[in-house]
């Protein structure tokens, strides 16, 4: 027998062994895992004080939701460079590899083995009464397979797959949070720009007022008190500008951390004072959170993994069936390894059943059941937290809108008050203290109105993120592994 003929025989035998091993697989159809039933929603059917008609705004992609080109460019940069995203991606790759490892146990394992031994048998142990030296040389293909009759391996594979999908959703949750943080940081940057511009204009106006007060004091037509009050007004505006510059620097550092490197945010206010406070954002029904919120989907996958682990723990109580076999050639000499008559094979089916293990298997089942209870509670808690996030965002958005309207009316009244106070002072009918109070209140209210408009825009970002958002669905994640789960994607 030539080497090529022997190799062909080995290949044919390998196929035969595989066929023999695959036959019992037709019997494999059992599973002791609990049914994957989604727990009922532990929250009301609608958000408090909200008409839930229409589709949720979460169906809008983040590129369409954020219209500012500078903000979109900043988000793209953060998604590419943020370290939290990279860590989450690494965990996805790790879970995917673990799933692949676990899934390999479902299939036969084939190994090519070549061994050679040389041994001497002493005379008193030899059958012939003489010492002997012999060789044994093997070249074979060996195969082994555990028949998953009770579904233990399939359940472990399902658990690994669910854990992998949970890490995918965890990465989407990280991306969702990242985009929201970048958007809020960008809005803060614009708020500081606008408030600093207001402060700078106020400083210029108060510097002129101080110059006039000084001149009036020098010519004797004004008091030193008026001059010091004008100095106080100017110092207050200058201090407010310094605080804003500090806060802006801190916010830029936070943006640099999110983006993964120092970023240059183009200067210029966002005209927050002109932002509309009556933009409606449909929220849909709470049930839509189950498919839009990555953390809820991840919790549901974790529950599926817990159910699968229960099935595996139950199957461990039942007999284990495994098949092993080998086919090849054997000879006492290397040059006779592929000669006629050198064919060697073995086939060794085995069945084992646990008899006594001091409660180890029962303990593993109890652990799996306890973890399933934890997974159910974690899922329900995640749904409740998501419902609260949306409800809180709706309340904040509604109340900030009302505050903007009230502050707008107050600002108009304060501007008129400051004008009248200045007019009364110019005509000698009041002290400069009236002007001081009016301008101080006016400056503070102008700053507050800008803050409220930024908060209103930020409430839209928070609501969008609380609903699940569309930003994560637009991130170019890996697509080499299709997700074929039963959950709506």
Describe the structure.
- α8 (294-315) packs antiparallel against α9.
- The protein has helices at 3-22, 62-65, 69-81, 83-103, 152-219, 224-259, 289-292, 294-315, 360-426, 432-466; strands spanning 109-121, 132-147, 320-331, 343-352.
- The chain is an alpha+beta fold.
- The chain contains 10 helices and 4 strands; from the N terminus they run ααααββααααββαα.
- Mean pLDDT is 83; it is low at 1-7, 9-28 and 472-489.
- Strands 1-2-3-4 form a 4-stranded antiparallel β-sheet, covered by helices on one side.
- The longest helix has 68 residues, at 152-219.
N-C termini distance: 58 Å
SS-based class: alpha+beta
Shape: elongated
Strand content: 5-15%
Strand order of the largest sheet: 1-2-3-4
Number of E strands: 4
Helix content: 55-70%
Record the SSE blueprint:
Layout (H helix, E strand, L loop, with lengths): L2 H20 L39 H4 L3 H13 L1 H21 L5 E13 L10 E16 L4 H68 L4 H36 L29 H4 L1 H22 L4 E12 L11 E10 L7 H67 L5 H35 L23
Antiparallel strand pairs: 1-2, 2-3, 3-4
Helix pairs in contact: 3-5, 4-5, 5-6, 5-8, 5-10, 6-10, 8-9, 9-10
List the keywords:
single chain, disordered N terminus, elongated, about 500 residues, alpha+beta, 4 strands
Summarize the structure.
It is elongated and about 140 Å long. The protein is built from 10 helices and 4 strands. The protein has helices at 3-22, 62-65, 69-81, 83-103, 152-219, 224-259, 289-292, 294-315, 360-426, 432-466, and strands at residues 109-121, 132-147, 320-331, 343-352.
């Amino acid at each position: 027998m030539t080497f090529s003929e022997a190799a062909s025989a080995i290949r044919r035998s390998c196929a035969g062994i595989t066929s023999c091993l695959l036959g019992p697989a037709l019997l494999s159809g059992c599973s002791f895992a609990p049914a994957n039933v989604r727990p009922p929603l532990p929250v009301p059917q609608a958000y408090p004080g909200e008409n839930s008609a229409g589709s949720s705004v979460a169906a809008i992609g983040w590129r369409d939701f954020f219209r500012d080109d500078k903000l979109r460019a900043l988000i793209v940069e953060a998604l590419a460079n943020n370290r939290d995203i990279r860590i989450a991606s690494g965990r996805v790759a790790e879970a995917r590899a673990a799933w692949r490892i676990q899934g390999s146990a479902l299939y036969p394992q084939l190994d090519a083995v070549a061994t050679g031994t040389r041994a001497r048998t002493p005379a008193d142990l030899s059958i012939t009464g003489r010492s002997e030296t012999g060789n044994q040389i093997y070249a074979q293909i060996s195969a082994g397979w555990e028949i998953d009759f009770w579904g233990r391996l399939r359940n472990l594979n399902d658990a690994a797959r669910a854990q992998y999908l949970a890490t995918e959703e965890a990465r989407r949750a990280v991306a969702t949070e990242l985009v929201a943080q970048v958007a809020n940081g960008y809005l803060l940057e614009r708020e500081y720009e606008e408030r600093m511009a207001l402060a700078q204009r106020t400083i210029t106006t108060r510097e002129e007022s101080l110059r006039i007060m000084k001149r009036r004091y020098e010519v004797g037509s004004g008091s030193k008190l008026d001059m010091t009050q004008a100095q106080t007004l100017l110092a207050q505006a200058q201090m407010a500008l310094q605080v804003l510059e500090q806060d802006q620097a801190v916010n830029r550092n936070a943006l640099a951390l999110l983006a993964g490197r120092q970023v240059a945010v183009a200067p210029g206010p966002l005209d927050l004072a002109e932002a509309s406070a009556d933009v409606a954002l449909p929220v849909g029904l709470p049930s839509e959170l189950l498919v839009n919120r990555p953390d809820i989907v991840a919790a549901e996958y974790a529950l599926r993994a817990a159910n699968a682990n229960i099935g595996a723990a139950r199957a461990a109580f039942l007999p284990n069936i495994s098949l092993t076999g080998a086919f090849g050639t054997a000879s006492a000499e290397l040059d006779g390894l592929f000669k006629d008559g050198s064919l060697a094979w073995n086939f060794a089916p085995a069945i084992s059943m646990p008899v006594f293990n001091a409660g180890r298997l029962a303990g593993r089942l109890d652990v799996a059941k306890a973890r399933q209870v934890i997974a159910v509670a974690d899922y329900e808690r995640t749904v409740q937290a998501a419902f609260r996030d949306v409800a809180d965002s709706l309340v904040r958005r509604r109340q900030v809108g009302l505050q903007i309207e009230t502050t707008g009316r107050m600002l108009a009244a304060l501007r008129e008050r400051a004008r009248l106070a200045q007019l009364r002072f110019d005509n000698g009918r009041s002290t400069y203290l009236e002007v001081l109070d009016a301008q101080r209140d006016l400056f503070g209210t102008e700053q507050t109105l800008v803050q409220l408009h930024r908060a209103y825009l930020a409430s839209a970002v928070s609501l969008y993120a609380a609903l699940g958002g569309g930003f994560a669905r637009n991130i170019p994640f890996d697509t080499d592994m299709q997700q074929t789960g039963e959950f709506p994607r």
